[in-house]
Amino acid sequence: MNMKNSWLFKLLGAFLVIIAIGGLVTSFLTSRATLRAFNLYTTRSGQIWAQRLAPDLVEYYELNNSWQGVDVFLEASWMTQQHQAMMGQGNGNGNGKGLGQGLFSDNSMMGALGQRLILTDQQGMVVYDSLDEFTGIQLAPSEIKKGIPILIDNKSVGTLLITPGSLSASSSLSNEFQVSVRRAVISSGLIAGITALALGIFLFFQITAPMRKLRKAASAIADGDLSQRVEIQGQDEFAQLGETFNQMAANLSQAELHRQHLMADVAHELRTPLTAIQGTVEGMQDGVLPCDSEQLNALLAETTLLNRLIEDLRLLSLAETNQLKLLRQPIEINSLITQILERIQPQARMNDINLDHSLQDGLPALQLDPDRITQILTNLITNALRYTPKHGSIQVATSQKDTTDAVTISVTDTGTGITTQDLPHVFDRFYRADKSRSRASGGSGLGLAIVKELVEAHGGTIKVESPVFDTDDHQGYGTRFIMHFPPQ
Ligand code: ATP
Ligand code: MG
Fold it and tell me: Which ligand is in closest contact with the Cα of 308?
């Protein structure tokens, strides 16, 4: 077995690919989510901070009447804020009233970490920038609109803008967080990978155990041991496969048994007339038997029998392998039956048997091969003649319940009937209920097997009833063969 093509490698490969994809997707999604959460948090806390800072700035302006020196004040408060945020603690004193004290006294101020603080004067000129980038620069009105106006008596004296800083601590903190997340993802990926390998190997042997058993059994069957079966455990797909396999093996051994019996039967059936021919010819050679027309007629009868037997076998094997060509054409079944009966009538009369029919009018034309249908009916009627004693009767009937229903053709006799033990086997090859009697009258036991194959080749069905032996349902007849042909 090529290891690269083994399921073990495919299974493990699939596991590892899934883990790798899972790890990549997790680390990508967590970094994105972390960054977003950090930004959202800093923006929100920036807004809260600005709202808290605004009244203090109003107070500052009222005291100083200008923004002069505000940078020192803000710088000091900024440092305090940064420090508190870094340490991760507020002083917890509640809202202090004093300037520079109340400003950063709330825990929520922590979020101001990484913020950029800009203060402009009345005209939009930057008087303070925590990053010291825009100080002294005029901000565009659109930028100013984003800020919080510092109002004294409803008159704006400046604007306060707090935004997340681009290279601020926020991103470096979130980066740090991402790195640790990535590290966790990698180590969990490694643990998952090792577990997957172990699990994969375990699952592989678990899954392939029934497969190996199946393979062993299959190769034993391939080597000719048809008795091989696999043990079925549970009800999963492998159990179902095992059941199908066992069914297949059973069918195979059944078919093999059948083939062996058939060979034995064929050999046996051929030997009987051949032995008779050989005996007669040897007797003639030795002068024990005269070489007259009586002996020659006997020889001819045996060879005719042999020929018929071979022809029957050929027909049967053609029908069984679906190789029989049917020359289907629309036929009036009633008139075909009348013709057949007319042909057999002399033979029936000779045996003192009443051969008649009961045919339903208005039957649809059926797409059948007239020669094969004649063969079917002749076989059935000949059987009936053979097993019906003198003064008995044979009736061929046709009927159809509804125009869409199948057309029924039956052959009923008042003969000996068939025992319940024999009934299921009459369609088997070489099956004769009474072997000595049939052999004496020339029957080989192939007739009904051929009839069944021919009926089925036409898409029809055939069954047999013999109520003579079924005392509960005595219908007053011996045997009835019933065929159904679907209308086309
Ligand atoms: P073949 O038809 O090949 O000459 P056969 O008539 O013995 O030989 P089938 O026609 O296959 O063989 O019939 C099988 C057996 O079924 C017969 O040997 C007979 O025992 C039984 N059988 C068939 N038809 C009837 C019937 N109408 N009444 C009683 N038994 C029957
Ligand atoms: Mg027959």
Answer: 1
